[in-house]
Design brief:
The chain is mainly α. Helices cover 80% and strands 0% of the residues. It contains 4 helices and no strands. The radius of gyration is 16 Å and the shape is elongated. The two termini are 18 Å apart. The model has no long low-confidence stretch (mean pLDDT 86).
Length: 129
Amino acid sequence: MDFNAPAIGIYIRIVAIISLLLGLNDAARLLGVNTGATSPLTTLGTAGFIYLAIFCLARLFAAVGLWIKASWGAVLLAGATGVELALYLAGRTEVQMTAFGFAVRLVLVASILIIFFLRLRMRRARATD
């Protein structure tokens, strides 16, 4: 993807910051920041801990990819967030999120779809020139 347009570049950087904040929030959950003396492995379970670690790393790498305006960042973020939402909606108890977290993830998926749509539109505009 060509993310060199100034308006799209700012939009992508905002999405990257949101992805970074979600990834850091997941990392804090993995480290047990809010659980006190209880182990995060006990709170989340082994499968939940592994899922959260994978999604955390995917979001952090996607944030870096989006920040440097690489196309793999958008693909990684869309894939990880889509899989996480699908697991949550399928009723997997290992994937836990609040209503606010669910809404933020929906906004991320919508943002990535908008980025893909804008890229497609820019490509069509260049083809007609």
